[in-house]
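Usage example:
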Amino acid sequence: MVSQKALQHAEKCRFCWMCRHLCPVQHQTGKELNTPRAKGLLLSMLSKGTAEFDKDMAKAMYECMLCDACVNDCCTGYQPPLFIREARTEAVVNDLAPAAVMQCIENIENSGNIYGAEKPSFGQDGTDVLVYIGEVAACKVPEMAKAYLRLLKKAGVSAKVLDCEPASGMMLADLMGYVQEVTDQAKSCADAINATGLPTVVVLDSYDAEIMKQHYAEWGCEIKAEVVTATAYVAKLLEDGKLTPKAEAKGAGACHDDDRLARSFHEFAPVRDIAKAAGYTLTEMFNKERLAKSCGTAVALSYMPGITTKVASGRWADLCRTEAKAMLTANPQAYLCLSQCVPEGMTLVDLYTALNEVV
Amino acid sequence: MKQIIACVKLVPAAAEVALDGQFRLKRDSTSLQLNIADLSAVEAALGLKEADTQVTVLSMGPAKGEALLQELFALGVDRVVLLSDRALAGADSLATARALAAGVRCLGEFSCILCGRRALDAETGQIPGQLAAALDIPAVTNGQQLEKADNGLSCRRLLETAVETLTVELPCVVSLCEYSYTLRLPSILGRRRAKDKQVEILTAADIGLVAEQCGLQGSKTKVVHVDTKAPGLRKCSYCNPEALCGIIKGVQ
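Running the assembly step on the lines above writes:
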């Protein structure tokens, strides 16, 4: 079953309920089963032999965005995603994972990405920086990737994109936990990045950046180049005057802090700097920065579209409580999830496209 | 290589651990973790593994460590043996090495024994040398990297101010530094295979030891007293820079 370390976290977590108000899935489904505490309780029952790990329990473990809102809020330092990921490993090991999850894993095995699609080529072979596009932007939101590359070109940055960009391992880690299959993907990705010899890798999707910056080294596959989030890189270009936006008022907008920028990197200013440069007057949603509510992830959207779309609609509801009409994001996964349910009268803005319009 | 044995210790996971009346760590009341340096030993063993090699993990400690040791099967470890018996409790490093050597003799022919260079709890660093002496085989300590060589193992080892590389004949004992190897994650296939495997628990009698040879009775050293450093004896106080000159003059 799950490791002793994960079980320790589950055993402590099950007594508490203090993060329930922050769980975006619990918010939208209203099921207690979708609180971190309930998942801890299930694993505790399992270890005591009072419950069986069956398909229902496995399904419950996948009804989580792994957004880390609970971790961020836990004042005692327990980490529900630690045991949830391990429970997912157990689900895959015992062939109990939902069919849609297994389909995603099969797609990754066959094509390298959850969509089972071939990644498009971006035809970039520059010499200054490597841009890691990621499978979501490449396959589902290519406009965002192209807009980003155009921005770099306008700033005079010569960017390279790998022709056959390997997966970072981030998606597989969400589907089956931190297992050797994930580190194998990570090693291939790190090798491909290191082979370019470029000093900087700009990562478009902060979920990819998180696994590269916070896990690769511990798995023995460190990236030699400096790993920079795409938002921080463009914000620096703006600060350095390499991108000079024209003044253009676009109205009020609110930035969505994606899960990883919010809680793994605590990076809040760059996305706001980009939004301001693009001409938006910023307003803030109630749940912002480290407390930002998840709008879902691309992987969850693939295997659990109904719940993920509900979670995205929860984020739209946050926006509707402000005077802003535009949801601003620079993350391809957030863009993809939020685009599933744009409320009438509201607009979803890809900040890189928006910035392109004024520089 | 026929069999590689990795010795691991289960150490308390908590930062503070209580002592019992005989100044022994109360391991039963705390959660356990694998000793950090021993993770390198396990990974090095798995890295040296060939198709016909068996990697065996040997440990000594309370039976509650079984669940933790069970996780090692998923990494590719073939056999896990836990020496667990009340008679083995309270052993000093000599009695521990004697018990481990007796355990090793029960495991059959081996090529090398890999250990962590020291444990997080007692931190004596004596076991690798004592184990090698008990088995009458050579030992290399403070290893950082191991490679197969024509006639044994090539070991890069850490010295006070340098590193050296030497070759040691098999069978041998090599102790490894903390973080010299990164322990791999389990694979899905490994987890599936691990489901059918069980940790073997051996008692002192199973490895041919009598009570006088192990545990507290078999130890040459005894902890007779433990002192806790009392804070505040130096009577420190904070002062501002302006007051400092006056204080120094007062001392003079």
